[in-house]
Amino acid sequence: MGATTGDTTRDTNEGAVTTSSSSRLDSITGLRWFAAFAVFGYHLAANASFYEQRDALRFVFLAGSSAVSFFFILSGFVLTWQPQRTESKRVFWWRRFARIYPSHLVTFIAAAFMLRWLGDPLGTKVALTHLTLTQTWIPERSDYWWGFNGVSWSLSCEMFFYLCFPFLAPLIRRASNRALWAIMVTFIALVMAMPWLSDLGEPVGLGETYIVYILPLSRILEFVLGMALATLVRRGHWHGPGLIVSSLFTIFCLTVVVRLAPSSWPNIRVTTATVIAYTLLVAAAAVADVRRTRSLFRARWIVYLGEVSFAFYLVHLMVILSANELLRGHHKLPLAASFLAVFAVSLMFAMAVHEFVEKPFVKILHPSRISTYGEAFRARYRGPRGRGARRSIEDPPLPVVASVPAERDPAGLPG
After folding, report:
1. Could you write out the DSSP letters of every residue in 285-348?
2. Which residues span the membrane (predicted)?
3. Does the N terminus or the C terminus of the chain have fewer Cβ atoms within 10 A?
């Protein structure tokens, strides 16, 4: 999560950009941090009341929740960008599990203790949906979606994407450029129209927020959009604006376009107003890294924050809710001091989760290590397969498992 981008070569027959297995998209890693920071600001404005000038913070981070759309597009992009592995679906799914579940489990346990402290314990059924990351499949039950560590609802969507990816990837990779463009245009149109299409759910009792924002079947449109985008960029058939123009357009959409949405239709802000901007930004960042053109987002400290952003995303809301419980009875605190204090504590916990949970468990749960553990277990307790005697108690001990270097996605975080 922070190494330099590997060498790239261009296939002269097809004009495709190919990358080595060590290729890095550091600008995308850096962009992850800004997206996570936007979510932090949005949640601080929405869930805390111990500071002054709350309306000012709401104004600045009005579109912060739309960053989840960026993450979903980026997830499909990063997984498709990686060199194709000859691995089974089971191994792919295990890699995804190893990347996100240990951190999720640790923050789930922390959230359970926090809720008990707040006097708001949740039931066993809600806990089971969070432990299995199935909470987004419970329609019209916000207590399930936002229960425990509320931000983990997006991981529930991601797990569905990961389940679908091995079936979708061959179709996307075999698709013609024209078909990929058709997929992108169609899916962008569907995402933008989803607030209006959600009316179709009313007869069966499904509300707009669930259909537009929560339902994995709706959010997978952004994931597949990212997959198609990555394939076009790799083939050299993407000719969108550069990183500076794309960044400015994204800022424009986040600060101007989202404010044009009527207050009665808040979900327009999280999808319709931003999906084009995020698509352009992801592609521009990837192209900048492939071509090694200048990019602010490749600064070393920004890349490191991008590496920590997954953990930051998981811990920040718990810090905000805890701070609100501790401080809301006091006089209003200055906005800047409150913001910096909560941010600093969130970042501190995020770095701890990243360094002591996320990174170690990627190594511990690496497929090759799991295979070695299995072989060791069989040899010790079942005996070798096929011919040969069982291990006797006098046999020398099995060799120590060698350490396995953590593999990392090109963008440095769980996709």
Report:
1. HHHHHHHT---GGG-HHHHHHHHHHHHHHHHHHHHHHHHHHHHTTSPPBPHHHHHHHHHHHHHH
2. 31-50, 56-79, 100-119, 151-172, 179-198, 210-230, 242-262, 268-290, 302-323, 335-353
3. N
**Domain ranges, residue 352:** 8-382
Q: How far is residue 350's CA from residue 341's CA, in Å, rounded to a whole number?
A: 14
Taking the C-alpha atoms of residue 379 and residue 381, their distance in angstroms, rounded to an integer, is 6
Q: Which pLDDT value is given to residue 385?
A: 53
Instruction: Tell me which residue of 364, 307, 316 sits closest to 342, measured CA to CA.
Output: 316
Residue type, 170: P
Q: What is the mean pLDDT of the chain?
A: 85
Nearest to 346 by CA among 391, 310, 387: 310
Q: Bridge partners of 51?
A: 333
User: Would you say residue 213 lies in a domain?
Assistant: yes
The rounded radius of gyration (Å) of the Cα atoms in the chain is 23
Helix (H) or strand (E) holding 10: strand 8-11
**Residue matched to tokens 């990392």:** 408
- Residue 367: inside a domain, yes or no? yes
Q: Which tens digits make up the pLDDT trace of 253-300?
A: 998 888 887 776 777 778 888 999 999 999 999 999 999 999 999 999
Please tell me the total count of domains within the chain.
Answer: 1
Quick one: how far is CA 153 from the chain centroid? 11
Q: What is the DSSP string of 67-126?
A: HHHHHHHHHHHHHHHSPPP---HHHHHHHHHHHHHHHHHHHHHHHHHHHHHHT----HHH
The pair phi, psi for residue 263, each rounded to 5°, is -60, -20
pLDDT above 70 (res 374): no
Owner of token pair 């930051």: 312
Q: How far apart are CA 190 and CA 187, in angstroms?
A: 5
Sorting pLDDT into bands at 50, 70 and 90, what band is 202?
A: confident
> Residue 17 belongs to what H/E stretch?
strand 16-19
CB of 172 closer than 8 Å to CB of 228:
yes
> What is d(CA 180, CA 174) in angstroms, rounded to the nearest whole number?
10
- Cβ(19)–Cβ(6) below 8 Å: yes
Answer yes or no: is 396 within a domain.
no
Domain-located, residue 29: yes
Kindly tell me the burial class for residue 204, based on how many C-beta atoms sit within 10 Å of its own C-beta (0-12, 13-18, 19 or more).
Answer: exposed
